[in-house]
């Protein structure tokens, strides 16, 4: 799971994360049940993944993106 300042360990809404299942980077939107929802950087259709497959994008990649 990602690093987070939230007590429940989930990323902050809007935080960039990597979905290790697909290799895609997206903005974290929410977790409902056993699914995390991400949106592509710059917009587009959300996709769902396992919340345990999320890894925080380092700040240097986030700034370059």
> Helical percent range?
under 10%
How many separate domains?
Answer: 1
The coarse silhouette is globular
State mean pLDDT (0 to 100 scale): 86
Measured by DSSP, the beta-strand proportion falls in: 35-45%
Compute the separation of the termini in Å. Answer: 21 Å
Rg over alpha carbons: 11 Å
Largest sheet: 5 strands, antiparallel
CATH architecture: Roll
- Poorly predicted ranges (pLDDT <50, ≥5 residues)? none
Q: Kindly state the number of beta strands.
A: 5
The string of secondary-structure elements, in order, is EEEEEH
Structure class: mainly beta
The strands making up the biggest β-sheet line up spatially as 4-3-2-1-5
The level-1 CATH class: Mainly Beta
* CATH level 3 topology: SH3 type barrels
Number of DSSP helical runs: 1
